[in-house]
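PROTEIN SPECIFICATION:
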Amino acid sequence: MPQSPARRRVRPPRNPAPPEGAAGCTASLQLPPVPSTLLIPLAARAHGGRYFPWLDCHDAVAPALLAELGADVNGTLNDLHTVLHVLWRTRAIKEAGRAFFAEHPQALGVNLGCGLTHHFQWLDTGANQWLDADLPEVMALRAPLLPPQCPRMRHADLDLSQPGWWQRLGLPAQPNATPVLLVCEGVLMYLPPAQVHAVLAEFAQHAPAGSRMVLDVMTRQAVGCAARHASVGPTGAEFRWGVGRMAELAAVHPRLRLLREQSVAEGYGWPGIALDLLWRPWFGAPLYGLATLGLKDLSP
């Protein structure tokens, strides 16, 4: 089948980086550097389908949110690789979430560092529950724009850099409780490694059996290089954590298992996959990708 013109225009970048940040449209929100990166996934989900129709996530709320904010995201949408990365990531998270809730239709889903993302529009089973959580300044922005739309949804303030967040969010901790799905996208790369390991360890220590955590991961080679990222650079945020091998994620805690790893190269088709195979010996991990973590049964 011949490729669309839009597909032919996009080639795998030499140094793809994780999709966050919003160049030229953060000042109006008056947010600190890292929280201000919430605009790029919002812009990509709202308008990215015009550039990459095969990845269009059909976000029902993002266009209206951008209009309400009055944010100029034209400069952001010129960063087509980042737009593609967001749409690919969204599709992968949707697939992982639907698979999880098909197995646990009444379970709880939690978006850690939700920004202005509304995953529940795609993952609502009619019986499950959903929690959106982020820094207080982000939730203050989100509350009037995306209030909980049913009793099965709620909001909470969250600072992942502080230990004890599992209990503060009121997440189930009994070993035989219903499993929980955690989504953490565009967040951990901005934390120092020790704090990332603490987040993963807290999930491993407290989550019920069968729980899953879907998170995005970047190569360690990109740490300290945010200024060169077309979208993140103007925000002043910095990449502080990456991995040399995906297996490092499970090594954080004995209970963790790496169930699946995905590379953004998938979004570029066979040319991207071929380049990913060439990069792996040098970088040891996808330049940017997703990991799904599960939990081992450590009972005797």
Remarks:
- The first strand starts at residue 108 and ends at 112.
